[in-house]
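C-alpha cells for chain A. Residues wanted.
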C-alpha cells in the first residue's frame, strides 16, 4: 500500500488518510512510503513502513543495530532537530484538540541526544542476561550497550551480562549517582549469589524486592548546590541534565516572586522542594510513596533544610491547611484527577507550575483550569530523546476577577 505520511501523532505514529485512516509506524511527516497493514481496528488501521519512496530530509540512519527490534527507542531514524519539531507539533495539536487552547510554545529545552539516562530498568532473560523487551512482547533483547545510557551504566550492563544473574531474577533497576545502586525483582532467587554478581559488576548498594538490602542504598546527585539522594525504586528523573534545567527555570522565577508558602504535590524525594526552599518561608511537600518520603526526610537533614514539611499521603486526601501562593504539580501520566483539580482551585494560588509527562492529560487539565488560570508559558522539555515521549513545563497565572467576569 503506497501512502503519504502527513500529521505526526502521539505514540510515534504518523497519520495517513489516502486509504482511510491509517496510523503509520516508521514514517516521517512528508514522506511517501510503502506500508503493510499489521492491525485493523473499526475506525483505523495500523501499518508498518516497508519501503521509503520519497524520504524526508530529516531521515537519518539509526545508530543502534537493535533499533526496531528493541522497544526502547522510536525515533532513531529522525534527526534530533526533526524529533524536536515533531514533538512540538504533537504538543500544539493535543492542546488544540483536547484542551481547546491555541497556545504558542516557548523555546524547547533540548537535551544531549545520547548517553543521557542515569536510571534504567532492565528485563532479565532466562539465561540471566539484561536487556529490553521487544515491542509488544515479553521476549528480552539482550544487549551489552544502550546508546541512551550513561557511560557508567553501560559499563555496569556489560559486566552484568558477562557474569550473568542467577535464575529467578526478572527485572533489575539500576541508577547512577555518586555510587551505583540497584533494586532486584523476581522470585525464588539466591540473594547471596545475586549480591555477589552485582558487586563484581560494580554495583555498590543493592536492595531486594522483599526489603532486604546491603550497605548504603542511596545514590546522590547534585541539585542546585545541594545533595539529592534516592533509594533505587523511588522515582527520580533519569535525564538529570534536563531535570536541572527545569528546576533552574522555576528557581529563577521564585527568586523574583518570593512566595510566602509553596505547595509541592507529588513531591518525590524533594526534587523541587529542596532547591526552592531558599526562596520562600515554607514549602509543604506532599508525597504518597513511603520510599520517597524517607528519602525526602534524609535529604532535608543532609542539607540542613528546616522550612520544608513533608506530608505523607495522596494529592487527593493529604490534610492541608491554610493558603498557598504558588503550587507545583508533577503528576503521573494520568494527570490531575478531578478531586485534585478541585483542591488546586480552592487554594487559589497566584501561580501554578505544571510539569507533565503526558501531553494528552496535560491538555485536558489545562482546559479545565482555563477559566481561572491563564497559561503564561509552555515549553517542550525533551527528557527522552530518540523516543516519542513528551514532557513539558507550563506556567499558569491566576486570572483576576475582571478577566473572569
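Reply:
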Amino acid at each position: 500500500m503506497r501512502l503519504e505520511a502527513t500529521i505526526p501523532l502521539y505514540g510515534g505514529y504518523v497519520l495517513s488518510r489516502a486509504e482511510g485512516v491509517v496510523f503509520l509506524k516508521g514514517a516521517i511527516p512528508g514522506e511517501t512510503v510503502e506500508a503493510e497493514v499489521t492491525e485493523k481496528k473499526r475506525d483505523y488501521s495500523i501499518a508498518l513502513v516497508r519501503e521509503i519512496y520519497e524520504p524526508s530530509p530529516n531521515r537519518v540512519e539509526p545508530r543502534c543495530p537493535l533499533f526496531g527490534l528493541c522497544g526502547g527507542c522510536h525515533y532513531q531514524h529522525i534527526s534530533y532537530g526533526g524529533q524536536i519539531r515533531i514533538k512540538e507539533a504533537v504538543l500544539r495539536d493535543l492542546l488544540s484538540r483536547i484542551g481547546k487552547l491555541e497556545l504558542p510554545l516557548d523555546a524547547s529545552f533540548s537535551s544531549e541526544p545520547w548517553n543521557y539516562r542515569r536510571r534504567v530498568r532492565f528485563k532479565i532473560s532466562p539465561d540471566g542476561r539484561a536487556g529490553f523487551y521487544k515491542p509488544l512482547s515479553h521476549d528480552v533483547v539482550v544487549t551489552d550497550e544502550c546508546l541512551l545510557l550513561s557511560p557508567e551504566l553501560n559499563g555496569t550492563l556489560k559486566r552484568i551480562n558477562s557474569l550473568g544473574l542467577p535464575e529467578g531474577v526478572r527485572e533489575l533497576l539500576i541508577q547512577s549517582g555518586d555510587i551505583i545502586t540497584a533494586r532486584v525483582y523476581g522470585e525464588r532467587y539466591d540473594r547471596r549469589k545475586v549480591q555477589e554478581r552485582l558487586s563484581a559488576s560494580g554495583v555498590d548498594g543493592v536492595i531486594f524486592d522483599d526489603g532486604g538490602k546491603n550497605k548504603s542504598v542511596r545514590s546522590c546527585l547534585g541539585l542546585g548546590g545541594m545533595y539529592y539522594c534516592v533509594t533505587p525504586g523511588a522515582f527520580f528523573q533519569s535525564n538529570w541534565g534536563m531535570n536541572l534545567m527545569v528546576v533552574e527555570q522555576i528557581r529563577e522565577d521564585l527568586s523574583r516572586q518570593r512566595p510566602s508558602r509553596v505547595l509541592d504535590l507529588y513531591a518525590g524525594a524533594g526534587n523541587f522542594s529542596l532547591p526552592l526552599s531558599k526562596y520562600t518561608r515554607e514549602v509543604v511537600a506532599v508525597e504518597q510513596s513511603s520510599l520517597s518520603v524517607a528519602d525526602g526526610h534524609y535529604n532535608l537533614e543532609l542539607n540542613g533544610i528546616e522550612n520544608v514539611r513533608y506530608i505523607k499521603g495522596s494529592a487527593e486526601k493529604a490534610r492541608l491547611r491554610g493558603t498557598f501562593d504558588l503550587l507545583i504539580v508533577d503528576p503521573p501520566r494520568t494527570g490531575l484527577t478531578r478531586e485534585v483539580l478541585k483542591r488546586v482551585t480552592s487554594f487559589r494560588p497566584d501561580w501554578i507550575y505544571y510539569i507533565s509527562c503526558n501531553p494528552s492529560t496535560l491538555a485536558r487539565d489545562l482546559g479545565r483550569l482555563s477559566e481561572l488560570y491563564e497559561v503564561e508559558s509552555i515549553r517542550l522539555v525533551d527528557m527522552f530523546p530518540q523516543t516519542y515521549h513528551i514532557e513539558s513545563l507550563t506556567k499558569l497565572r491566576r486570572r483576576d476577577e475582571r478577566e473572569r467576569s
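The longest strand covers residues 45-54. Residues 96 and 102 are 5 Å apart (CA to CA).
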